Each structure stands twice: as structure tokens, then as C-alpha cells.
Amino acid sequence: MSTTSQPCHTHHIRHESVAPTRVRWLAPGAEIDAHRHDGHQIVYAARGVLAITTDVGTWIAPATRAIWVPAGTVHAHHAHGAIDLHLVGLPATVNPLRLDAPTVLTVEPLLRELILAYTRDPDDDSAERHRLRAVLLDRLAASPQQALHLPTPTDSRLRAVCDALRANPAEQRTLAALGKEAGVSARTLSRLFTSDLGMTFPQWRTQLRLYQALVLLAEDLPVTTVAHRCGWSSASAFIDVFRQSYGHTPGRHRSPR
Length: 257
What we know:
By secondary structure, the protein is an alpha+beta fold. The chain has eight helices and ten strands. Helix content is 37%, strand content 25%. β4 and β5 form a beta hairpin. The longest helix is centred in the C-terminal third of the chain and has 18 residues.
């Protein structure tokens, strides 16, 4: 069974007036229920793989990525592997990225060290720490955005197909075969993937498989096992796609022992 996160349900939403700056440690499989902040938040897992889910999709970030969560966004967290979570809260008036939707950002080495240093002592109100934040925001504004988003379908027919793929990312059936089981034509499904999710069927399935691969790597499964469980015919084919998407090989994302 796939361990990808499911859509975030918005019942009994916890509201925090201020997005906190702090460090949290989450055990493998731990969750933070749906909540929202009045301010923006940068969410960075220095270890492990973190998924943030809203009603419209899931964003996933290994230790080379951070997630921008805009003010007011109802979201839940899910930890894959042990998580060393660094949270940087910003007022709603401070938006160096000018983004109003969750976004995955590249965390280069300097930005990583700035986030770690800034969250180390949240109560520090010194001039030095204010200068540190200014540099952090400058580097954040220059951080490339990454297409690590798995959108959630709204159409019930498309949802049935996507749920089947979530349950088994290695599923090799064609769109026509999947559509037959869901009672919808391949042409209609192809149109729905584009109109509802903004992706083609192959693009969405590849995103799902990459997401699941990060989850399994965080659980320390061997690269070859991850490749086959996620639907690649060989470890080398998986490594090629992974490198194209992340800029390095899968081995970098395995949890340290």
C-alpha cells in the first residue's frame, strides 16, 4: 500500500495567529493536523522527507528543498522518516517570493545554513539576528522554484484512477485500461488530467512515483527496491529520472545511520 499523503480535510481547523519560528522533531509517520497561520511560513526539513497537504494537493520536500506556505493556507504535515523540522515565520506583509500558493524551493548550502542559524534561538531579538534574517530573505527570493507538487483531482472519475495509482505507483496499465475500470474513456481521462490537474497522465504518474520514491528512500530501502516498487524497469532508469528531477542521485536522500 502506498504511503502518499491524502487530501487535507478542513474540519476543526486549528488557527495560529502567528506562524512560529522554531525547531521541531517529528518521529517517522508523525503528523501535524490541519491548521493555518495569519503569517507566511518557510518549512524546512534538515533531515527526512516532509509532505505538506492541502485540499488541492501535496508538496513534498527532502533535505535539499523547503516549502513556502502562504498566510491563511490550511495545511497538514506528514513526516516520512525522522524529521528535523525548521520553521521560519514571517508577517503576512513580508512576502519576498510574491507567492500566494504553496511552493517547493531549492535550498542551496548557504540558504540551509541561514535557516538553521535563524531557527536556533527563536527568542533572540538582537541586531545580529535581524541582519541574519535579511540575508535569509534575500537568498530565499533568489531560490529556484521546483515542480514538486502532486495536485489532487476534483472530478470523481479522475479521482478513482488517481487513487488506484496512489495505492500502487508501480501500476503499468495504460490510461485506456485504467479508464475502462473507472467507466470513462481514455480520451476523457486524458482531457481531465490536463484540465483538472494541469498535467498530462505521464507527468502526474511520474510525479507520484518520484514522491513515493522519496518516501521509500527516507525509510532506507535500497535504490533497486525503490525503483521496482515505484514502477521503473531498472535501477538505472530510475536514477536517470531522479537525477533529471533533483539534480543528483537517489542515494543522497537516504537517511543517515
